Amino acid sequence: MQAIFQSLESIHNNIIQWYIYHGRKLPWREAKHYATYAQWQQSLQSSMHLLKCDDINTTQQDSTIPNICIYHYNTSKSVFNHSRAYRVWISEVMLQQTQVMRVLESYYFQFLAKFPTLYALGTANMADILKAWQGLGYYNRVRNIHKSALYCMEHYNAKLPQDIYALRNLYGIGNYTAGAIACFGFGQSVGFVDANIRRLLLRFFGIESMNEQALIKLATQFLNPQESFLHNQALIDLGATICTHELAKCDICVLMPYCKGKSQYKRYGIKQKKPSEQLTLILCVFTISMQNTTGILCTKYTGKRYQNLFSLLEWRDSIYALHTTYTHVYHIGNFKHTFTRYRLSVSLYHIVLEEFKELDSMRYIYAPLGDMPLQKEQIEIHGYTTLYAMAHSNLTHKALKLYESNNIFTRNTP
């Protein structure tokens, strides 16, 4: 380890050089905010055309950074501010448990268009926030964002605090997210550890295991204090694209000459995944005739995980019992669904009710994966368009799309 720290200046230069030419280009790393994905892509294409990255000889240790790179990676203090910190915060929370491209294409720009400032988010209706988050899952993330926004409105004049310890005290913000906001949003020189940096550091220093606080201390010791922004982004990208969980591409890694774990990288930084739990689910689209439309029966979750999200109903008995309990039962189709540690095999059924009292017996009707049978007063009836427009679970979203694809909105009678 001592030899590594003696060569730290050279290692830092190599890391920055690699990142300038090979780091991922992502909008939340930009000083400028673009309103849409298309606008950002257009700007990126213009920049890359000038840079001509494909023509660069990556084996050259050329310390001259092209002007376009200096513009693209402007790390002067003037570009770090509260607006940038807010965008970094939103992106970092979205990226927890979610793939980069999914966030990039479908959520980041759209969410910021609806809630461009912390004040706009704090004053928004929770139902609108949940709807904007719909599809990202792990809804406690966005509830914590909203709670933190309210707290910042009360205590920090509707801005994120710049102090890293104050950031850590906000809802849903841990050591990594606080460090990322402080560094990428406010331009502070801080070390921190996410899953990618953790794996990279353990392999680089040849350490089989280390607790979080010790790793943060090591990351701080390894930090490039003059270029903290570029250094930390580079470590994240090296871990995400080169020193990956399954395969370390040591032959093209800029850290290879100094890496202690390159010959046995699988010894270091590998966390064992917990096995998934396989479940089968009978999900039901109960419909009933209403004035000039078809009503769909649903319920609003009250539990912590999906609080205030609407859902279709689960039948917690056999398919045979479903057919014998209701007269008009139709199998729509099957689909797979994954969330947290569960892998669901879902069978979707359409049950046409002639009148609401057919639901008098509720002993087998649950909110999906709920703990207790639903009570009749927990059931709501909404038209398809209304239900689709309200914030609902990803499971319900998939089911509604399958229901829609079968063109059965008007099937009120057998």
Describe this structure in words.
The protein has 414 residues and is α+β, with helices and mostly antiparallel strands. It is 42% helix and 14% strand. It has helices at residues 2-6, 8-22, 37-51, 67-72, 82-94, 100-106, 108-114, 118-122, 126-133, 140-155, 164-168, 175-185, 195-205, 212-222, 228-241, 319-325, 384-389, 394-405, and strands at 277-290, 293-300, 310-311, 313-315, 328-339, 342-353, 365-366, 379-383. Strands 1, 2, 3, 4, 5, 6, 7 and 8 form an 8-stranded mixed beta sheet that branches. α2 packs across α15. The radius of gyration is 26 Å and the shape is elongated. The N and C termini lie far apart (75 Å).
Short overview:
With 414 residues, the chain is of the alpha+beta class.
Distance between the termini: 75 Å
* Number of helices, where a helix is a run of at least 4 consecutive DSSP H or I residues: 18
Mean pLDDT value: 87
Tell me the number of strands: 8
Q: Please tell me how large the radius of gyration is.
A: 26 Å
Main β sheet profile: 8 strands, mixed
Give the proportion of residues in helices: 40-55%
- Uncertain regions spanning at least 5 consecutive residues: 49-72, 409-414
Written as H for each helix and E for each strand, in order along the chain, the element string is HHHHHHHHHHHHHHHEEEEHEEEEHH
The fraction of residues assigned to DSSP E strands is 5-15%
Shape: elongated
Structural class category = alpha+beta
